[in-house]
Structures
1.
Amino acid sequence: MEPDNLLVIGVGGLGCNWARGAHTRVSTESDLLLVDADINSFLGASHAHCMHLDPSGTERGSAALPSLAGHRTVEGLEDVESVIEASELVIILTGLGGGTGTGSSVELAKAAKRSGSLVVVVAGLPFAEQTFRTRMAMDALPVLESVSDVCIRVSLERLAWHARTRRMKWSEGSGWIEELVEGLVSTIGKLGKINLDMMDLKSVIRHEGRATLIVASGPVDDIGKIADEARRSPLIDISLDNARGCLIQVEGGPDMTLTHIASITEDFTQRFNEGCQVILGARVSDRLIGRLRIIAVVSGLD
Ligand SMILES: Nc1nc2c(ncn2[C@@H]2O[C@H](COP(=O)(O)OP(=O)(O)OP(=O)(O)O)[C@@H](O)[C@H]2O)c(=O)[nH]1
Ligand SMILES: [Mg+2]
């Protein structure tokens, strides 16, 4: 796949933060589009395509008005159409509950779908005490899910918890959002030992039910622990038991063997549905000597 066939889009303040951080890991194999009404979201990202939703330049957001943001997005689509149309896979990162992310991400997902792209959305869900924002997010989710191929819900609560244990910032993705995007792009965008492609991803996500993405890593001599971490890693409360589809990419250093690949896959998928469709890929990366990393799309969840 050509590099510019992969596009990372950040929408709204939080989404742009996440996208800027995640894109630094995949800048050679994907393009970046930032969408916000607040020009501060574009600072330091001169390499990015930017869609400024407030042409008059006086506002800092969409004043918690998703419909306004949605409307402005549709009006501005023409300027970014060529970037979206060139992409086979579009990854949209956003935090729901504000005006821009909530309203604009739906229109961007629709545009990407119309141009035939596969659309993966990573949607942050507000903290529990943010009741108004949570209500707004919950209203938007079904729409977002209906216009995307995979919609991954990320609880900001859990992300913040992960951030504390990793000494990182949830607003910058806790390290986890970056890993997720890097995993997706490297799974789909690069040649591996056993190559996976877009058709494999499409085939896995067609299973009915919810889908989620998993990233976990650890030393190659403790496969059980990596599989365990993987099963616990979803950032939203959802059980993987009985999953009906799974695309799994195992990455390791040059010391990785086929036995490693087989045992981690077996361990990770042991509680999945008996008839679960498992598609396996593997990739060698010099940076991972002595370690294994798995990235999985798990679908058909109850
Ligand atoms: N507690 C807390 N939550 C935040 C903060 N910033 C963002 N969030 C959460 O992230 C969600 C998305 O926020 P933003 O990305 O800033 O919103 P936006 O899409 O830019 O929307 P507008 O600014 O209203 O146009 C919110 O609904 C909150 O749940 C923050 O500073 N503190
Ligand atoms: Mg904002």
Note: The mean pLDDT is 87.
2.
Amino acid sequence: MTNLTRKKAKSCSDHNAVFTANGMIIEPMNSVLKRVWVPGAVIIGAGPSGLAAAACLKKMEVPFLIIEKENCLASLWKLKTYDRLKLHLPKEFCKLPHFPFPPEIPSYAEKQQFISYVEAYAEHFSIEPLFGKEVKRAKYDGTMGLWQVQTNDTEFVCRWLIVATGENAEPVLPQIDGLTEFRGNILHTSEYKNGADFKGSKVLVVGCGNSGMEIGLDLCNSGAQVSVVVRDKLHVLPREVLGQSTFALSMRLLKWFPVRLVDRFLLLCSWLILGDICQMGITRPEIGPLELKNTSGKTPVLDVGTIAKIKSGHIKIVNGVKRFTSRGVEFVDGRSDEYESIILATGYRSNVASWLMVNSNSLCT
Ligand SMILES: Cc1cc2nc3c(=O)[nH]c(=O)nc-3n(C[C@H](O)[C@H](O)[C@H](O)COP(=O)(O)OP(=O)(O)OC[C@H]3O[C@@H](n4cnc5c(N)ncnc54)[C@H](O)[C@@H]3O)c2cc1C
């Protein structure tokens, strides 16, 4: 604990304060709330980023406490992803600092292998988050020079705050008329596990990012009749070119060539490997995939087999949804169709804006 924090803690603490072995001071505030003085940093989120930050702090002997709302590490991967998920990028681009993936794990690690790697990481660095604590509010007290981080029953006070709550904290549900009228199954991709329950049924996947495209493939392989909504322009690239990861190849080429030239090369490879996706009902944006990623953050879809199913007619591409009806959907092009299930592959959003009260003086990046 820093001298500053210790002094504040002492001055605020009452006779019931408890000093823990790892330097924290716990004092009751009232019958519901207690205050915990944390030496060093509080990290919010025990996903890969929070653990990576913790490991780096540990190496530098900076004390920290991780607060996680779920009851496990890597909750996104454990609780909100589908069974067939593998890393979209080769493992060398997904490894956490100071701890490589074991060599026996394949380049595109399976979901369970990635989870085991994250668990081994936490064990290796002896990282023990405080689970089941959702941060409801965090604000910086400029006069004390300390952060106050509040959960349901505790206020944590610390000098540094590290936000590692990810970009996938909350599912995004589309604002489309009639969603509540639909009488079939509706689920968000965060609830989808596999296609077993959908065999033989007609399913509409709304959204065509990496998750939507892969879940479409999974459903198709499980015997569902699948349509995927492609509303906007979209880049799809093969996951690999000549046996090399497209992502790794792009990173290498970008060291030598301008982004537009690399984009042209990727689009040529894509055309040779996947064919002309425009003929399948998918329109490419005017600017190339890497330039688009740089300018708008929009990630290209890395194809894992969905395009072949679209080409063979096993997966249908359909237009944007105008409204949901009790039995199906009306599309923006005026057509309509009936479905038994709808999977919303409409992405996620960060939840930071709902609990982080900041002014620019309290932030550094
Ligand atoms: C289907 C899918 C596939 C993906 N594939 C890849 C891939 O191949 N390669 C890759 O690099 N990335 C991939 N990603 C991106 C993914 O975001 C990263 O893999 C990684 O999980 C990000 O780590 P993170 O720690 O930043 O966030 P997260 O893993 O989302 O962890 C954030 C943690 O913060 C917790 N939290 C959130 N809010 C609060 C709060 N208020 N209080 C306390 N705790 C809170 C959450 O419960 C969660 O445990 C994929 C994502 C998805 C959804």
Note: The chain has nine helices and 24 strands.
